[in-house]
Amino acid sequence: MNAPAFSTGAIPTMVSTGRRKLVNVRQRSLLVAKLRTLWILGVFALVGGLALTRICWLGITGPGGRDGDLSGLLVPHRGEIVDRNGVPLAREFNTYSLWFNPKAMSEGSALIHTPEQVADGLIRIFPDLNRAELIAKLRSDKPGYLRKTILPEDANKVHALGEPALEYPMEATRYYPQGSLAASVLGYVDTYGKGQVGMEEAFDKQLTSAEGRAHPSVLSIDFRVQSALEEELARGMALSKAKGAAGVILDVDSGEILGLASLPSFDPNHVQPSDLMITPEQAAQGDVPHGFNRVTNQVYELGSTFKPITVAAALDAGTITDLRRRWSAAPLHVAGFTIHDLHNYGSSLNVLETLIHSSNVVTAQIADELGGVRLKKTMESLAMNERPYVELPARGFPLWPRGDWPRLRTMTVSYGHGIAVTPLHLASAYAALVNGGIWRPATLKKLDAAQIPAGRRVFTAATSARIRQLLRMIVSYGTGRKADAPGFRVGGKTGSAEKPGAGGYRHHSLIATFAAAFPMDRPRYVVIAMMDEPQGTEATSFQRTAAWNAAPVIQRVVPRIGPLLGIMPDETRDIDVSDLKPLIPAGGAEE
C-alpha cells in the first residue's frame, strides 16, 4: 500500500504560522504589561512630584516654625496671675464638672430612676445642693451644669449612681488659691471664660494671648500686705459694726498699689448672684454688692482728710507765711450757711492747732484767702476731677463742682464737703503731699525702676517737708493719736463726714477715714483705712468718728506690714518737729 503523498512544503508552513501567532500573543501581552507598568510609574511620579512641589511651597510660604504650636499644647488656656513676689493669685487647672445630658439615652426617659431618687443620691454626695432646684433640672429636657468643679472621688460616687445622663467631663477651671483674698483686685472668670470685674477683665486679652499664657501676669500687690490689710479692716468692721470697709496701701514714689481691699468681699471660686446684685431695698439703705469696689468705684465726701491739702495749697500760694498766725474760731456765717466745729476749741487757732483739732472754721478761712481758682487748680493737679488712675475697669467719676467755685463752695471743699472722690484719689493725693510734691498715677502693675513715671509737680519740696511735720504732729498730739504705731513714725489725718441721702445729709450715717503715711522722716507708703457707717460700740468707746474706728486700723496694720516691706521699728528716730513744738496747744483733740 502506497503511503499518501504529502506536499513537501505543507508541514513547515503550518508550524511556522502557529509559532508566529504565539509570538504575537506574547509580544502583545508584554506590551500591555509594559504599558501598565509605565502608567503606574507615571501615576507614582505624578503623585511624588505633586507632594514634592507642595513641600517646597510650604517651605517657602508656610510658617517659619512650629515651636509656638508645640508650646501651645503645654500652656494653659488662660495665663496665671501672680503677686509681686511670684505668689499665685489666679491659675488654671483641669477638674471634673457635673453635667446633666438628657440625650444620653437614645430611647425612653433620660433617667433610670426617678428625678427624686437621683436628686437624693446627689445630695448625699453634695449636701449643699438645693433639692427642689435639682429635681426641676432633672425633670427638664435642657442640658446644663448641676455643679461646677467636683473632686475625682465625688465623680466616682456619681458614677456609682448608675445614671448615664449624669456626666462628669474634664474641663479647664479658673482657680484662686488664696480664696477671697484680693477678690476686689482680681475679679473672676465667668462660665464663658471671660474675665469680669477686676484684673481678670482688665488683662483679659493679655491673659489669653500666646505671651500671656506662657508667662505670668505680675501685679504690684504683695500677698502678705494684702492679707494684713484685709484682716485688720475686717476686724475694724466687726469692732465698730460698720456695714463696709475699704483700704489701700500705696508706694509714694512709684504709685504701685501693694494692697487694695473692699469689704465685704466675695469668693471668686464660687461667685453668687448676690455678690453682683442687690435688692432695691438694700440700695435704698446705702448698701452695695459685695463685688462692688469701694476703693475705686464708689465716691465719698472724705471730710477732714482734705484739710492738709488745703493747707499745702495755701503754703505754696504764699497766703500762709507764718504758722504762728491765728484765725478766729467762732462759727462762720456765709451765704446763709453756718460753718462750725464739732467742739469749742477756743477763740482763735493757728495752722497747727487747726489741723490737730480739725477745725472746719479756720480751714474755711484759709481756703477763702487762697481763693476758689487756686484751690480748684490744686485739686485738678491731683486728678480729683477725673476717674482714678488704675487698670481696674470699674472706676467711679468724682462728684466735681464745675465752673467757677463761689466762696461758700470753696470753703466747704477745703474741709472735704461738696466734693466726692474715691479712696484711691485720696491715696494718690497724700502720696504727693509727702513724697516731695510729685503726683503719680496709681497702678496695679509691678514696675521696674525704669518704668516709674516722672509724674507732675503739685507742691514744692519745701511745702511737702512742712506737711510731713504737720501730719506727724496730728498723730502725736491730735485727732490721730490712736493711729500711732511705736517706732514707725506714722503721720496722718482723720476725716468723718455724713453720708448724703434723698433729703440731705443722713446725720446718723458716717464715712470715717484715716489717711496715713509712714515713716514720716522718709515716707515710703500711704495707708488709707475707711469705715462705712460705723456704729458707736463699747469697743470704740461709743464713738463713731474716724479717730475711734479708722485710726486704730492704721495702728494695727502698719506694724504688720512695715517689716514685710523692709521698714523695721526704730524708736530712736523721728522727724524733726522742734521748730513747731512751741505751737502745740496744751491738749489734744478727738474727732
UniProtKB/TrEMBL annotation:
<dbReference type="InterPro" id="IPR050515">
    <property type="entry name" value="Beta-lactam/transpept"/>
</dbReference>
<keyword id="KW-0645">Protease</keyword>
<feature type="transmembrane region" description="Helical">
    <location>
        <begin position="38"/>
        <end position="60"/>
    </location>
</feature>
<dbReference type="Pfam" id="PF00905">
    <property type="entry name" value="Transpeptidase"/>
</dbReference>
<feature type="domain" description="Penicillin-binding protein transpeptidase">
    <location>
        <begin position="247"/>
        <end position="543"/>
    </location>
</feature>
<feature type="domain" description="Penicillin-binding protein dimerisation">
    <location>
        <begin position="76"/>
        <end position="192"/>
    </location>
</feature>
<protein>
    <submittedName>
        <fullName>Peptidoglycan D,D-transpeptidase FtsI family protein</fullName>
    </submittedName>
</protein>
<keyword id="KW-0472">Membrane</keyword>
<dbReference type="InterPro" id="IPR012338">
    <property type="entry name" value="Beta-lactam/transpept-like"/>
</dbReference>
<keyword id="KW-0812">Transmembrane</keyword>
<dbReference type="InterPro" id="IPR005311">
    <property type="entry name" value="PBP_dimer"/>
</dbReference>
<dbReference type="Pfam" id="PF03717">
    <property type="entry name" value="PBP_dimer"/>
</dbReference>
<keyword id="KW-0378">Hydrolase</keyword>
<keyword id="KW-1133">Transmembrane helix</keyword>
<dbReference type="InterPro" id="IPR001460">
    <property type="entry name" value="PCN-bd_Tpept"/>
</dbReference>
<dbReference type="InterPro" id="IPR036138">
    <property type="entry name" value="PBP_dimer_sf"/>
</dbReference>
<keyword id="KW-0121">Carboxypeptidase</keyword>
